[in-house]
């Protein structure tokens, strides 16, 4: 039951999306992994807890349920979770996967077969490059590219709604155009580029971060691609707003979504997974308590109302809206510094910070 008190907060900040990392186990060891997942991962949310979370989320108005990890297909109850979420009324249930579930192609196919016959609405595979060597170098596992491609091909054949995610980094950004063409060839609907967050295992691999010079080339690449005519849609999310690529989306952290990690920690979105620790925990509070009382969520909401000091004289602020709060929080935990990716225009000329 949503009481009138709750309704007031939910009217202003309607919680719509829930991202849950159900396990931190994974058979890959990606150099950039924000979850620091790996074969020895032991954290997982059990089915009973997921049911409680889905029930409360549904009552609060969530209709978009996203299952991530680690590798979620390694969780023994993942199919029951999908089924329960759909039965409970979630309109869109999405699952993230690296395509390398186990090191056995036949076992993977069996898992994907089960997924294809489930009520899952969308599957998002991570493909880090069109070049097998670069993909495997990033994942740390030789042969993982072949598994990812086979998984994508299988899902497309089964008419699943398939998307690909890629994180542009120093190793792979030059292969983005060929990755887009590969996605087209594979029949992928959308290629989304995620912005690298310096957290988790990425902190041990600082060479992944693009230099200013590389960032300029990346920007040129995207500027060329965005006017091309591809069957696969190229999407860049809100974290790239401050690159001024003329595609602006709204950051929704603290406005309509929550992320829960495998140990139960609660975050405004994936970009806060390291910097906002120690975090509130779903084993100690309800989703609504977090949504209505968490100081970081309120700071994020209030920060959007104010023009932060670092950006207040910038003529482009209306477009980028100050960049990605998660990236700013990484710098000083106070949102007072500029987004480190900030490009801004002075007298119409682009400047790099
Ligand atoms: C954490 S993974 C979990 C799901 C699955 N194992 C996979 O790799 O798709 C979800 C997505 O986050 C991306 N990711 C991981 N670490 C990241 C980081 N430090 N910054 C940005 N994205 C990251 C991955 O590349 C992947 O596309
Ligand atoms: S990014 Fe995904 S595939 Fe890579 S180690 Fe992390 S959880 Fe595993
Ligand atoms: S804080 Fe950054 S990563 Fe998180 S939703 Fe906003 S723009 Fe996206």
TrEMBL record:
The keyword Acetylation does not apply. It comes from the Bacteria. Residues 12-229 form the Radical SAM core domain. Keywords: 4Fe-4S, Iron, Iron-sulfur, Metal-binding, S-adenosyl-L-methionine. Coiled coil: none annotated. Its cofactor is [4Fe-4S] cluster. Gene3D superfamilies: Aldolase class I. GO terms for molecular function: 4 iron, 4 sulfur cluster binding; catalytic activity; metal ion binding. CDD domains: Radical_SAM. It holds the Pfam family SPASM. The keyword Cytoplasm does not apply. NCBIfam families: rSAM_more_4Fe4S. This is Radical SAM core domain-containing protein. It comes from Anoxybacter fermentans. The lineage of its organism: Bacteria, Bacillati, Bacillota, Clostridia, Halanaerobiales.
